Each structure stands twice: as C-alpha cells, then as structure tokens.
Amino acid sequence: MLETGIIDAGFALAALIALFAGVLSFLSPCVLPIVPPYLAYMGGISMSELQGDRAGRRRTLLAALFFVLGLSTVFLLLGAAASAFGRMITPWMDWFNTGAGIVVMVFGAHFLGVITLPFLNREARLDAGDQGGSAFGAYILGLAFAFGWTPCIGPQLGMILSLVIDDASVTRGTALLAVYAAGLGLPFLIVAAFLPRLTGFMALLKRHMERIERIMGLLLWTIGLLMLTGGFSQFSYWLLETFPALALVG
C-alpha cells in the first residue's frame, strides 16, 4: 500500500473494505441469529425483558459495549501482530500476496457456492463460563467471541489481516483492524439499543441470509483476485491520481 500517511488512498480503500467486511461478518449465519439471546445473556435478563423492559435494555446496552471492547481488544492485538509479521516477511511479500490471494479467492468461492469447505460451516465456540449480567463478564465473552468464532468470521478476518501484512505498518494495521471491529461491533450496540424496533428487520435479514453470503463471497473473491494480480495497489494509485487530496490527508 501507499505510505504517504496514516490515511491515504490505499488505507482509505482498505478501511472501506474492512468496514464492509465487519458488517457482513455480523450478518453471517452463525452470528446474526444468536445476537438477541447473547444480548439477553450478557444483560442478565430474559428474552421477554429484552424486548419490553427499558431498564433491562439499558443494562444490556452497557454489557454490549463491554462485549464490543472485548472483541476489539483481540482484533487490535491481531492487527499489531500481523503488521509486525509483515515487516519480517518483506523480502517474500510477492510470494505471500500470491498465496494469500489464492486462499482468499478459495474462501470466496465457498461463500458463492462454487465449492464447499466443511470446516467453514462449523463454529468453534469458547465457553466464557457463567458470566452473564456483568460488564466484566460481557468483556470476557467478547474475548471468547473473537477467538471462538474464527471458523465463521475467519475468511473475512483473514482477508483483512492479509491486507495488514501487505502494508506492514503497525499503526495503520491496528487502525484497519479497529475499523473491522467497528463494522462487526457497532451493529451489536444498535441492536441492543433498538431491538424491539429492529425485530422485523432482523427477520428480513435472516430470510435473505443466502444472498448475504453470496455478497460476502463476491467481496472475498474480488479482493483475492486483486491481491493475486497486484490490482489492489494499482487501484490505490488510481484513487490517488483521481482524488489528489488523499495525498494531503494523514
């Protein structure tokens, strides 16, 4: 990527991809359906209270905030570690981009329904214990979620980590994972705050889950192809030439 500053054409493009990937991770079949019961558990209330009790929803919103902080902690650490790894493998970056591009394209083909990778259809959940109803418990649950749902959100997260490794900047890499965490975490907060009003909308999303997976697959396949062919860097330079103001930002 370009190194004209923390925010430039390359980072802006990667951040947009990371945000979109985070939102799609939230909408994935193994995350969206469990959101309401998770929120109720974190708030220490029942599903009926979550639907109708304002005090319970305020308590759940606080728990959801700590949950998002927990998963963000893991993602930020992963971003810093991936950036450091990128610096170590700089001499072999071309080989890495080729391999990572192929892997991301394979993941994309899975979500598009072209091939089937059974391990991506499993959930490796970690048990956070009896931690419901407390901010600390919600934070621990967020840590467990980030680690335990890797088979589900792994392709999306792996794509973002590949971009971070390619950049090899700890600051930008950490920022990019923060954007991904925002895309995944902010919907949790929105649902916690407005669940009764969003019930119908969430039911609509569940009915279109297959289409959401296809969109995710298309994103993965396209980014993998860009990594494989060097098109990501070329598109970044095109953005910089088309919008010169990006060179002054950051």
TrEMBL record:
Q: How does it sit in the membrane?
A: Multi-pass membrane protein
Among InterPro entries, the record links this protein to: Cyt_c_assmbl_TM_dom (IPR003834), Cytochrome_c-biogenesis_DsbD (IPR051790)
The entry's localization annotation reads: Membrane
This protein's UniProt keywords: Cytochrome c-type biogenesis, Membrane, Transmembrane, Transmembrane helix
Provide the primary localization. membrane
Give TM regions.
Answer: 12-40, 61-86, 98-120, 140-165, 177-198, 218-240
Q: Where is the Cytochrome C biogenesis protein transmembrane domain?
A: 14-228
Asked if the keyword Transmembrane helix belongs to this entry, the reply reads yes
Task: Specify the superkingdom.
Answer: Bacteria
* Keyword Magnesium recorded: no
Q: Which family does it belong to?
A: Belongs to the DsbD family.
Which protein, by its recorded name, is this?
Answer: Cytochrome c biogenesis protein CcdA
